[in-house]
Design brief:
The complex is a heterodimer of chains A (737) and B (115). Chain A is mainly α. Chain A has three domains: 124 residues; 372 residues, no CATH class; 230 residues, no CATH class. In chain A, α6 packs antiparallel against α9. Chain B has a single domain, classed as Helix Hairpins (Orthogonal Bundle). The relative contact order of chain B is 0.11. At the A-B interface, α5, α6 and α23 of A face α1, α2, α3 and α4 of B. Chain A: Belongs to the CPA3 antiporters (TC 2.A.63) subunit D family. Chain A: It is found in: Cell membrane; Membrane. Chain A: Keywords: Cell membrane, Membrane, Transmembrane, Transmembrane helix.
Chain lengths: 737, 115
C-alpha cells in the first residue's frame, strides 16, 4: 500500500540524497524527483478533495510512539500549490543553471527545502514541526548564501544563529509539554491540555521562540541589519518567506493547540507587542537613512500588524466574524509578502545603478530608474494600505472588528501606523521625483525590473489576486524563473483570492450592496484596456507579455464583479487557463532569448522557420489569449460574455470585445513576423546546441506540453477535473445556497 | 524509592534548566558570533538534559524511549546547524572572499550579453 503522505516527504528527500551522491546526474535525478513529488502531491490533493482528511502513522507505529502525518483541506491545498510552483522552478532551473557548478549545489539544497516544506505542512506532532522548521531554516540559509558573497554569508550566519535560539526555546516548550502530558501529537496534546503553570510556561516558551523567528518587537533586533545588508533577492526572500513561515506556526499553535489556554491577557500582551512593533518599526523606517534599512524596519512594523489580530481573534467567538478576521490576517501576510519582495528588489536596482541607497541622495531616481521607482510606489501603496491593495481590505476588517469588540485602541494603532507608513513611503517618492527632464524609456533593465514590478503589482492587486505565501520562494530562484512564476501565480490567485476576499470576507450579496463590485468591475475594465494598449506599444517580447498579464489578470476580477454564477465561472476558469497559456508564452520567450538571442518583437522575423515547435506553442498561447476556439481562452471569454448578458451587465461585453480586438492587435503581428517574414541572415546569437532539436530539450518540452494543455483544457472543458468543472463547483458553493 | 527517583529527576531537570538559562544569558550578553554559537550548544545540552531526566523511570523500569529518540534527533539537528554556522564563519574569516562567479555567469547568459 503506497502512502501519499509519506511519499510526499520521502521522495524529495530521496532525490536530495541521490543528487548528492551522483552530482554528474543531478539535473536528471533532480527533475525525476521533482516530477514524482509533484505527482504524489497532486494525488494527495485529489484524495483530500474527494473525501475526508488523511492521516497516516509511519511504519505502523501509532501515537504516542510513532510519527504521524496528516493532511486536512488546508494542508492539502497548500501542498498542491507549493509543489506546482516548486515543479515550475525545477523545470526552469534545468535550463537555467545548465551543467554549471552551481547546478550541483542548487539541487540538493533545493530538494531539501522542498522536503521541509511538505513536512511542515503535513507534520502532525510538535517535535516533527521542530525538525522541519530547522530543516527549512538550514536549507534556506544555505540557498541564500549560494551566491557566495561575504554579505550573504554574514546575513545568513546571523539569521541561522537567531533562528537556532528561537528553535531551542521552542524545543524546551515541547519538552515541558511532553513531561506533563506524555504526548507530542498535536491533537492529543490539545485534548489533554489544561490551564496551569506548565501549559502557560510551554505556551510562553514555544510562542516566544517563534516570535524571535518572526521578529516581533522587541525581538526584531536581528532583522534590520540582516535584511538590509543581504543581497536584494535574499532580503526579499527573507522578508517575504522566512519570517512569514514562523508567523504561520505561531498562528497554528495559538489557534489549534493553545485554544482555550491562551487567555485574553496573553493575547493582549502579544497585541501590545504588535502595537509596539507597528509604531516603533514605522518610526524607525521614517528616520532610516538607507532605502533597504527603511524596507527592513517596515517589515518589523508589518509583522506587528499581524499580531494585532491575535487579541481580536481570541475575543471573537467562532463563526463568520472569526473566519473573516482570519481571512483578513492571511490576506495581510500575503500582500506584505509581495509588496516587500518587490520593494527590496527595486531597492537593489537603485543600489546597483546609483552605487548607494541613501534616501537623501535619491534625487532624480525616478528619471534614471522609472520602473524601479514605480515599483517602490506600488509597493508603498500596499504597505500604506490604500485601496485597492489587499492591505486595505485587511486593515478595514481589523479596524471594524476592533471597534465592534470595543477594543478601539487597536484601531488607533492601525491608523497611526498607516499615517507613519504614508509618511515614510512619500518621503522616498518625494526625493525620487524631483528632477527634470522626464525619462525617455520606462524600463531600463527589463530582466530585473519586471519581476520587481510584477511583485509590487501583485501586492497592490492582492485584494483581487492574492496568492498564498509560497510564491515568494520564487525569489530564491533566479530572475527568469521568477518572471515565469508570476504566470503560475495568477493561477493560484483565483481560488484563494477572489473566492476568499469577495465571497468569504464580504459575501457576494453584501459586496454588491456596498457598491464594491461596481468599483471592482470598473477598475478591472480600466486595467484590461490600459494593459492591452500598453502591450501594443512594447517592442520587447517579455515586456509585451508582462503588460498582457496585467490586462489578463483583470478578467478574473471582472468575472467576480459581475453578480451571477456564470460570470464567476468565467472569471475563475480564466485563472487556470490564463496561467497555462501565459506560462507557454513566457517559456517560448525564454527559448527565443536563450537559443537565438531574440529579445524583441522586431527581431522575430522568421523565427517560425528556425524554431517551428516553440513557435507553434507560442501561436497556440497567443490564439488562446485572443480567445479563438478551441483553445482554452475561448471558454473563458464565452462564459464571461454569457454571464454578463444574463446579469444584464452589457457594458462588460463591450469591454470583452474591445480587449479581444486589442489582444489580436498585439499578438497577431508577432505571429505574422514569426511565420511569414523571411529570417535574417544572422541571429543575434548563434545556437551551439543539439542539431536534431531546435533548442535544448529541457527548454523545448515545457512550452509544447503547456500549449497542448491549453488546447486540451479548451476541448475537454466539460471533462471531470478540468478547470471549468472546478470553477463550476466553487461557483455553485457560493451561489447554490 | 520513588522519593529517590523524584530527587534524581529534579536534580537533572533543574541542572538542564540552569544550562538553558546560562546559555541564553551568554547568547544575549556576548557579541562575538562564536560565543553565541557555543552558547546555543549549551542551551541545546540543557534541553536534552531535561528530556533525558523525563525519560528516567527508576532503576527497575526501562527508561521511556520517546525522549531518547527526541534527544538523538535533536543532537543531529544541532550538529548540522553548528556545522553550517562554522562553514559560514570560515567564509567570513577569509580576508579576500573568493568570488564564486557561477551564478553571475549564468545571469549573463540569460540576457545573451556574454555572446
Amino acid at each position: 500500500m503506497l502512502d501519499p503522505l509519506a511519499l510526499a516527504v520521502a521522495l524529495p528527500l530521496l532525490g536530495a540524497l541521490l543528487v548528492t551522491m551522483l552530482p554528474g546526474w543531478s539535473r536528471t535525478l533532480g527533475m525525476l524527483a521533482a516530477l514524482a513529488t509533484t505527482g504524489v502531491a497532486l494525488w494527495l490533493t485529489v484524495i483530500v478533495w474527494g473525501g475526508e482528511g488523511l492521516r497516516s502513522d509511519l511504519g505502523g507505529w501509532g501515537v504516542p510512539l510513532g510519527i504521524a502525518l496528516r493532511a486536512d483541506g488546508l494542508a492539502a491545498a497548500l501542498v498542491a500549490m507549493a509543489n506546482l510552483v516548486a515543479l515550475a522552478i525545477s523545470i526552469n532551473a534545468t535550463g537555467y543553471f545548465g551543467a554549471a557548478e552551481s547546478s550541483r549545489k542548487f539541487w540538493p539544497l533545493w530538494l531539501l527545502l522542498w522536503t521541509a516544506l511538505n513536512g511542515l505542512f503535513l507534520a502532525a506532532d510538535l517535535f516533527n514541526l521542530y525538525v522541519m522548521l530547522e530543516l527549512l531554516g538550514l536549507s534556506a540559509a544555505a540557498l541564500g548564501a549560494l551566491t557566495g558573497t561575504r554579505e550573504a554569508a554574514e546575513a545568513n550566519l546571523r539569521y541561522l544563529l537567531v533562528g537556532l535560539l528561537g528553535s531551542m526555546t521552542y524545543l524546551l516548550g515541547v519538552a515541558l509539554l511532553y513531561t506533563a502530558y506524555g504526548a507530542l501529537d498535536l491533537e492529543l496534546v490539545a485534548e489533554a491540555l489544561t490551564p496551569g503553570p506548565v501549559a502557560w510556561s510551554a505556551l510562553a516558551l514555544m510562542i516566544g521562540g517563534l516570535l524571535l523567528k518572526s521578529a516581533l518587537f522587541p525581538l526584531h533586533f536581528w532583522l534590520p541589519p540582516a535584511h538590509a545588508n543581504a543581497p536584494a533577492p535574499v532580503s526579499a526572500a527573507l522578508s517575504a518567506l522566512v519570517v512569514k513561515a514562523a508567523v504561520y506556526l505561531v498562528l497554528r499553535l495559538w489557534l489549534d493547540l493553545f485554544d482555550g489556554i491562551a487567555t485574553l491577557p496573553a493575547a493582549m500582551l502579544l497585541g501590545l507587542l504588535g502595537a509596539g512593533a507597528v509604531l516603533w518599526g514605522s518610526w524607525r523606517a521614517l528616520r532610516a537613512e538607507r532605502l533597504k534599512l527603511l524596507a527592513a524596519y517596515s517589515t518589523v512594523a508589518q509583522v506587528g500588524y499581524l499580531f494585532l489580530f491575535l487579541p481580536l481573534l481570541t475575543a471573537t467567538p467562532d463563526g463568520a466574524e472569526r473566519e473573516r478576521l482570519l481571512t483578513a490576517l492571511v490576506l495581510l501576510a500575503l500582500t506584505h509578502g509581495f509588496a516587500k519582495a518587490g520593494f527590496f528588489l527595486a531597492a537593489g536596482l537603485v543600489q546597483k545603478s546609483t552605487g548607494h541607497d541613501r534616501i537623501r541622495e535619491l534625487g532624480g531616481a525616478a528619471q534614471s530608474l522609472p520602473a524601479a521607482t514605480f515599483t517602490i510606489g506600488l509597493a508603498g501603496v500596499a504597505l500604506i494600505g490604500l485601496p485597492p491593495s489587499g492591505a486595505f481590505f485587511a486593515k478595514w476588517v481589523l479596524v471594524g472588528q476592533a471597534i465592534a469588540l470595543g477594543q478601539w485602541w487597536w484601531a488607533l494603532v492601525a491608523m497611526a501606523g498607516t499615517l507613519l507608513a504614508a509618511a515614510y513611503v512619500f518621503r522616498v517618492l518625494a526625493r525620487a521625483f524631483n528632477r527634470e527632464p522626464t525619462p525617455k524609456c520606462f524600463l531600463t533593465d527589463p530582466r530585473t525590473e519586471i519581476p520587481a514590478l510584477l511583485l509590487a503589482g501583485l501586492g497592490v492587486k492582492a485584494a483581487l489576486v492574492p496568492l498564498h505565501g509560497w510564491l515568494p520562494q520564487a525569489m530564491v530562484a533566479p530572475a527568469p524563473v521568477s518572471a515565469l512564476l508570476h504566470a503560475v501565480a495568477v493561477v493560484k490567485a483565483g481560488a484563494f483570492g477572489i473566492v476568499r476576499v469577495v465571497y468569504d470576507v464580504y459575501g457576494v450579496e453584501f459586496a454588491h450592496d456596498l457598491g464594491l463590485l461596481t468599483v471592482l468591475g470598473v477598475l478591472a475594465a480600466t486595467t484590461i484596456i490600459y494593459g492591452s494598449i500598453k502591450a501594443l506599444s512594447q517592442d520587447g517580447l517579455k515586456k509585451r507579455l508582462a503588460y498582457s498579464t496585467v490586462s489578463q489578470v483583470s478578467y478574473i476580477a471582472l468575472g467576480a464583479s459581475v453578480l451571477g454564477p456564470i460570470a464567476t465561472i468565467g472569471g475563475l476558469v480564466h485563472l487556470v487557463h490564463q496561467g497555462i497559456m501565459k506560462i507557454t508564452l513566457f517559456f517560448c520567450a525564454g527559448n527565443y532569448a536563450e537559443t537565438l538571442g531574440v529579445h524583441r518583437v522586431s527581431e522575430m522575423n522568421g523565427v517560425g522557420r528556425r524554431m517551428p515547435w516553440t513557435t507553434l506553442a507560442f501561436t497556440v498561447g497567443a490564439l488562446g489569449m485572443i480567445g479563438i476556439p478551441p483553445v482554452a481562452g475561448f471558454v473563458t471569454k464565452w462564459y464571461l460574455g454569457l454571464g454578463a448578458a444574463s446579469a444584464g451587465a452589457y457594458w462588460v461585453i463591450g469591454v470583452l470585445l474591445v480587449s479581444s480586438l486589442l489582444n489580436a492587435a498585439y499578438f497577431l503581428p508577432i505571429l505574422y513576423r514569426a511565420w511569414f517574414r523571411p529570417p535574417p541572415e544572422h541571429w543575434p546569437k548563434e545556437p551551439v546546441l543539439s542539431k536534431r532539436l531546435e533548442t535544448a530539450p529541457a527548454l523545448l518540452w515545457p512550452p509544447v506540453v503547456t500549449a497542448l494543455l491549453a488546447v486540451v483544457a479548451g476541448l475537454l472543458a466539460a471533462a471531470p477535473f478540468s478547470p471549468l468543472e472546478w470553477a463550476t463547483l466553487i461557483a455553485e458553493r457560493e451561489y447554490g445556497r | 524509592m520513588s522519593h529517590e527517583i523524584l530527587l534524581t529527576q529534579l536534580l537533572y531537570g533543574s541542572a538542564g534548566l540552569l544550562f538553558f538559562l546560562l546559555g541564553a544569558w551568554s547568547f544575549i550578553s556576548h557579541e562575538p558570533l562564536w560565543r553565541k554559537l557555543i552558547a546555543l550548544n549549551i542551551m541545546g545540552a540543557g534541553v536534552f538534559h531535561v528530556l533525558v531526566a523525563v525519560a528516567y523511570r527508576g532503576l527497575d523500569t526501562p527508561p521511556d524511549p520517546v525522549p531518547h529518540a527526541l534527544v538523538l534527533t535533536g543532537i543531529v539537528v544541532a550538529v548540522s546547524a553548528t556545522a553550517l554556522a562554522l562553514a559560514f564563519g570560515r567564509r567570513l574569516d577569509r580576508e579576500e572572499p573568493e568570488q564564486t562567479s557561477d551564478i553571475q555567469g549564468v545571469d549573463d547568459r540569460e540576457d545573451g550579453t556574454h555572446a
